[in-house]
Design a protein that fits this description.
Chain lengths: 159, 157
């Protein structure tokens, strides 16, 4: 079974059909997805700024890091669930789309950097080095690119 | 009004957006709205008393709101560019009109909070804010979620 056959099979399942025929389902799921991406992006921004010694900078980083991490992973979970629902509803538009794959590769990179940085920050990172600040900056650029790719799924031709 | 909207939509800038640049403008709009809504959610969450109660409210809002306003300018510019690209349609698009109404509501809530509730901030800057402040946070959180919902719905009618 190739990707196209899988997409056809998935879009014909009764679960996918239910989402497709419910007029408010796709905009509704996308709305939850955007609300969570906004919360995630702002939280990631505050964490990256904190690494660079700005933002909410009066509190020690190691006491802040677990709260940032918890919020980020909870939001990622909701984003994954709503993202999977959107793929299930329109598999032909997503799993054969180059923008979707670019998004997933960059997501893996952004999550790896976040996992590493929150881990380092938890272990009493008192004075972040240029490497940490660079990683935090790259993570923010990746989140921006991920948002672009997510929107471009709607415009790039599936193969 | 209709003539003006048609003139707007047929301007070289509007034509160039609708033919070539719409996905790019829309993506920048999403990045800006993420900072606007996300930073507002963080401030609202402190205002309601859910998070960061060990930090002063004014400290959290002072550090976050400059980002909110900077990104709001970006969201307003990209929003206007998308509007002129399809001005005659958006002027009759119900979710778009509801979204604009909700933005006015968010502004009224913010102004009331700023000029009435916020005046007593020194009494509730630490710990859990007073009910009026928590209500302003809850209204803001709800309205901004609805702004996102109706904003997304614009493209579906």
């Amino acid at each position: 079974m190739n990707l196209h056959q899988f997409a056809d099979w998935l879009s014909n399942t009764s679960f996918s059909q239910t989402i497709q025929v419910t007029s408010w389902a796709i905009p509704g799921i996308q709305t939850i997805h955007i609300i969570c991406l906004a919360a995630l992006f702002a939280t990631a921004l505050m964490f990256s700024l904190r690494i660079a010694g700005r933002g909410l900078s009066t509190e020690p980083l190691h006491t802040q890091a677990p709260r940032f991490a918890r919020a980020i992973w909870m939001l990622i979970l909701v984003l994954l669930i709503t993202g999977l629902l959107l793929i299930t509803a329109e598999p032909g538009r997503t799993i054969t789309n180059p923008a979707f794959y670019a998004k997933m590769i960059m997501l893996a990179l952004a999550l790896a950097i976040t996992l590493w940085l929150t881990g380092v920050a938890r272990r009493q990172l008192e004075s972040p080095t240029a490497v940490h600040v660079a990683a935090a900056t790259i993570a923010m650029l990746l989140w921006i690119a991920i948002i672009f790719c997510g929107r471009f799924i709607a415009y790039v031709e599936s193969y | 009004m209709t003539e003006w909207l048609e003139w707007l939509q047929n301007s070289p800038l509007a034509v160039s957006i609708s033919e070539d640049w719409f996905p790019w403008v829309e993506s920048v709009h999403v990045v800006c709205l993420a900072v606007v809504a996300g930073s507002i959610f963080l401030v609202d969450s402190r205002l309601i008393g859910w998070t960061s109660r060990h930090l002063r409210f004014t400290y959290v809002s002072d550090r976050l709101l400059p980002w909110t306003w900077g990104a709001f300018i970006g969201a307003a510019i990209t929003g206007t560019l998308m509007f002129i690209a399809g001005a005659t349609n958006y002027a009759h698009n119900t979710p778009f009109l509801i979204k604009m109404g909700l933005l006015v509501l968010a502004a009224v809530n913010m102004l009331y909070f700023q000029f009435v509730t916020f005046r007593s901030v020194q009494n509730w800057d630490t710990g859990k804010p007073i009910p009026a402040a928590r209500a302003a946070g809850a209204v803001s959180l709800t309205v901004w979620c609805l702004v996102i919902g109706f904003g997304r719905w614009i493209g579906f009618v």
